[in-house]
Amino acid sequence: MTANNHSHTVYYDGACPLCRSEMGVLMRDNCAGRLSFVDISQPDFDAAALGVTRAALMARLHLQARDGSWLIGVPAVQAAYAATGHDRVARALTHPAVTRLARPAYDWLAAHRYRLPRWLLKLVHLHAGRCAPEGACRAH
Question: Domain of life here (predicted)?
């Protein structure tokens, strides 16, 4: 269940360097507090309490809205970027031509995220800045 002041809860794999980097960017830019973040790689995380399997959550990024509905994969990424003010990226991910490319690219990255070479991780790495563990911004 999402917290009352958040519109979405993002469930991400904190053991994945690429995932952790992207979530760091979203956490940094979550100044309006629209998102809450849950690291599903933590040993005490209970997927069953959400009515989904851990395997499903680990396969793709999941975002749960306050009403309990789910967005998975590219739609979850799009909603998370929209909620943090990355409007250009969010709009681009809704364009049909971009969506046709983004979905298979996302699926491939999600499936191979632990096998990506270090040089590729460095290439796509974005500096996440400093954010509190629950995703709130801190003044730099």
Answer: Bacteria
Identity of the residue numbered 24? G
The answer to whether residue 116 sits within a structural domain is yes
Residue in the block written with tokens 């979405």: 8
pTM above 0.85, yes or no: no
Q: Which domain holds residue 77?
A: 8-124
Rounded average pLDDT per 10-residue block, the chain, 140 residues: 70 93 92 96 95 96 96 96 94 93 93 82 53 44
What is the number of structural domains in the chain?
1
The residue among 13, 17, 16 whose CA lies nearest residue 126 is 17
